[in-house]
Amino acid sequence: MPGHESALDRKPEWQPRYPGSGRMKGKVAIITGADSGIGRATAVLFAREGAKVAIAYLEEDDDAAKTKELCEQEGSEAITFRCDLGRKEDAGKLVEKTLDAFGQIDSLIQIAGEQHPDYDITDITPEQLQRTFQSNIYSMFYVAQAARPHLKRGATIVNCTSITMYQGAPILLDYSATKGAITAFTRSLSGQLIDDGIRVNAVAPGPIWTPLNPCGGMPEEEMDDWGTDTPMGRAGEPNEVAPAFLFLACEDSSYMAGQVLHPNGGTVVGS
């Protein structure tokens, strides 16, 4: 976990779908989980739109190096930082390295996370429960805390929650619980920072083809028809989610704060 994108037989679609228009020109974004999946697609899209990108990842060095290369091919600059953001000190080091490289932070895009399927609540160990919360929600607190002194008026934070926060997921109890926490964190932090001109929003993807699910995030027997229960009848691709993060990070969404976007294949959920 969370798995290497390079090892997947069918590669996720990360490629931006349209030319850039400079919407992140002069900006610096930290993107967690940017080595693969939604994070990679978002990093490359931000680079195309002019942002310099700090790519935070857990241990997939090959994937992170590829994302960096792809960002540079877009004519931007990128750095990689191998870290465990469930540890407060690593979050601080990520912010320090970004400032050393680029001198500013304009957007926090918090996508990194993990999930572990269990058919029975009694199968969830204390260690797994702690780890899932550390990776998925503690990390967002730690990175936001470290970055807060450096965020100026006009900065944005976009967190990755999930459709499981709204629908539940019987075999993903701990994961779904963290996603509920992320939505509450997003709305509460928005209220705290809005007077300082910092907007906080979130994206709640549905089933998206990334390394997370086929590399242990879902039982193998669930993967044959995974995503086909959406109204669109398929799982989504990372490059169908990345534009939601871009929209909430740039001035296109200047009148939005404390909100959640739902790229989920047409499933109607409460906002």
Automatic annotation (TrEMBL):
Residues 1-22 are annotated as: Disordered. Residues 1-14 have a biased composition (Basic and acidic residues). Keywords: Oxidoreductase. One of its GO terms (molecular function) is oxidoreductase activity, acting on CH-OH group of donors. It comes from the Bacteria. The keyword DNA-binding does not apply. InterPro entries: NAD(P)-bd_dom_sf (IPR036291), Sc_DH/Rdtase_CS (IPR020904), SDR_fam (IPR002347). Belongs to the short-chain dehydrogenases/reductases (SDR) family. This is SDR family oxidoreductase.
